[in-house]
Amino acid sequence: MDRNEALFDRAREVIPGGVNSPVRAFRSVGGAPRFIRRAKGPYMWDIDDKQYIDYVLSWGPMILGHNDDRVTAALHEAVDRGISFGAATEGEVVIAEEIRKLVPSMEEVRLVSSGTEAGMSAIRLARGYTGRNKIVKFEGCYHGHSDSLLVKAGSGLLTFGNPSSAGVPAGITEHTIVLEYNNPEQLREAFAKWGDDIACVIVEAFAGNMNLVRGTQEFISTMRELCTKHGALLIVDEVMTGFRVALHGAQSLFGVTPDITMLGKVIGGGMPVAAFGGRRDIMEKIAPCGPVYQAGTLSGNPVAVACGLATLKLIQEPGFYEKLGGQAQKLIAGLTEAAREAGVPFCGDSVGGMFGIYFLENIPKGFADVMKADQNHFNQFFHGMLERGVYFAPSTFEAGFVSIQHTDEVIERTIEAARATFREIK
Ligand code: KE4
């Protein structure tokens, strides 16, 4: 038994499933998760000191690569001044100004500690601002684990959602309408039926939690028009896409202005910083200005903010996103060619520094397409690559990420490993 397996046995004695977040348990791919001991640049090393090229990057935050010296210097400087005060700090003002500069739709910004908190707060704010209860989300999108959002489509679409988790009362999910992603016609029907009762629509404009699935321009533009027409708020969840697909987020690529935007991951640079923000007249409803309560002991923590701020400064270097997107495209092109040579049905896509790999003939356009992917082929690929020192997300329903440290040499090593792995797939 290697040290990862031994530690996993110990972990399961004291932590549910041995992990602090379910996807880390390798349940859908099988085998023992790797317990990571250190990381630098595009690499991580597990407790057996085995090196991996990392395409998870802490699920997105490590866009500069792990432990960029300039970021860790900012962290050490902040720690030396104090770890947490529970009081206002200059850093919170500076990072809010930086976020507003980069995402102008966020006229005011409230920092929280996780994407879940950002989503939960944004939904409450939309309900408080509009005085309405119904919300619309889309099958395959994930916005954190708050009760209103742990919902699967009802018996038929255009019905209210049913809880997708134990412990969530039906009385909460009955206000959540779950629709098909990329189906603008169905969205029109939902607004025709309930338009004046809908508080908000919440969406990942590029979905990253059913693997990468691109929202269509028509889909995103239609929801903007319908929200405006019916007085509902459009919440664009950019926890994953923010500063990942482009410097100014997915909203800048679609040319759509949300009423509220959620951010996370990159804005913390690997530390727990997330945010929600939007139009001033909406944000002024948030306590202490208005009646919608929201709070957090470690919101805007000075050390976490220092890490996020250092990251946000460095991603603004000229050419950063052209290079980042180029590396993701090289990866996808190389993997696709390797699969073709081996005769394995496979395709891939990328948007900026975010990518999807699919054991399908064609790039998925929605949840139903993604569900047709060959899970067995994915699992063989995942483990074959892991053995060869390449760490992809341990789930076929996750997007992947590159950092600015994923150089041509790193990409080429990945493709070499893939050539050997694809040949083994049966
Ligand atoms: P957190 O509460 O995990 O910080 O963020 C929730 C969230 C909200 N919105 C989007 C678009 C997200 O992708 C996430 C979290 N993403 C997952 C990865 N698919 C985090 C990994 C995990 O759950 O361990």
Model description:
It is globular and about 55 Å long. The longest helix has 23 residues. The protein has 14 helices and 18 strands. The relative contact order is 0.16. Strands 4-14-13-12-9-5-8 form a 7-stranded mixed beta sheet, with helices on both faces. The site of ligand KE4 has 19 residues, from α4. Ligand KE4 binds next to α4.
Oligomer description: single chain
Number of strands: 18
Helix content: 25-40%
Class of secondary structure makeup: alpha/beta
**Order of strands, widest sheet:** 4-14-13-12-9-5-8
Kindly estimate the percentage of residues that lie in beta strands according to DSSP.
Answer: 15-25%
Bound molecules: ligand KE4
C-alpha termini separation: 27 Å
Uncertain runs are none
Q: Mean of the pLDDT scores?
A: 96
Please sum up the structure shown.
The chain is of the alpha/beta class and about 425 residues long. The protein has helices at about 5-15, 70-80, 90-100, 115-130, 170-175, 185-195, 215-230, 250-255, 280-285, 300-315, 320-340, 365-370, 375-385, 410-425, and strands at about 35-40, 45, 50-55, 110, 135-140, 150, 160-165, 175-180, 200-205, 205, 215, 235-240, 260-265, 275-280, 345-350, 355-360, 390, 400.
